[in-house]
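Integral membrane protein structure dump, as promised
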Amino acid sequence: MATSADGPAGGVPDRHDGPLGESERAELAALRKRFPAQKKWRAALSAVLITLAALLAPLSAVAVWVADEMADTDRYVATVAPLARHPEVRAAVTDRVTDAAMAKIDLDALLSNVKAGDRPELEKALGSLRGPITDGIRDFVHQTVATFVASDAFATLWEQLNRQAHAAFTGALTGDSDTAVKVNGDAVVLDLAPVVAQVKQRLLDRGLSAASLIPSVRTEFTLVKSSDVRRVRTGFRGLQIAGNWLPVVTVVLAAAGVLLAARRRRALVAAALGIAAGAAVLGIGLAVFRVIYLDHLPVGANQSAAGEIYDQLVRFLRVTVRTVIVLGAVVAVGTWLSGSGRRAVRVTNAWETGIGAVRHATGITTTGPVGPWVHRYRSALRWAVVAGAALALLLWPYPTGLVVIWITLVAVAALAVVEFLDGTGQPDGAGVTST
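structure tokens r here:
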């Protein structure tokens, strides 16, 4: 008996030659149900992961700011040192130090050196002049303090003070009492005792002997005052630790969401825009919190100085926000342009046409042996440019939004060179005749 694929000798029958059996229909129905369900499950998980990445983006920025700002002495000093030259901060420090000095060198302090028998007659003779004399002494002290605070010596002292306490907010928010910055109740304060000591010596040099009565006491200058300080103190250590790995988790979640998506290009655009939106929300939150913080300052507080201090303390965090927004926009636009959508194709065609027009205008009709080689490896060269731009961004110590823009412009220029050197001036496969 002959054996065939569809014979009775036990061969495998060709199921396409006849109608499906009941079991085959059931198996096909199960497969049809399984794949749509799996596709929906992957799409849902992809959306969840991308959403989590977008939500973690602002928290990652805060964690990086806390970890880097408090661990790096130079960056901390770069943040607080310029405060010594802000007019509002100088005025606030001048008033605070003047008050501390005048608490010890009022008119009664000046009369302390007068003989006990002569003091009643002298006080009687002064009469109504006591007030103007006291005001004159205060003006003299205030002028001396203001002159010192406006000098380079104060700027140097301010920087030294903060450099010695480079873990300023770390020490404050973790309860370290050995730094110059501490948490007193609901305020973060800076001790100005060295400034008072310098002013005391200057007053003595200018002939105000009563300044010798100024003791070596702690003089507090409030950097931040808010009822939220204690709550921030609770989570500060967690943010400091999370600064090293939370951004990585955010990127991994976004990458996993993109890889699980059926339309990965669209998912990458969504992830980039979502992370940029999260950073934008953080930027808006910083602006709103600034208004709330200034509105809740105690009566008599210098709001201008408090605003300057707030702006300096969150300066690098705002830089991070702008960087993430610009980077997200660049990635989204680049991903969209690499797609096959109608509008994206129009843009890329216009790009190639423009490069071709430049080549034609310069009279370059051939690029020699380089042209065919570039045409053959054009896709690889484009990916190399993108990888180089990503590597430059990763290796940049502290990138800003402007850095991202410049790296993007350099990458675009490199892509233009690749397109210009493409000797065929035609898309892949154009002009090739099949035999």
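Residues 1-15, 114-119, 121-131, 425-435 have pLDDT under 50 and may be disordered.
lmk if u need the other ones
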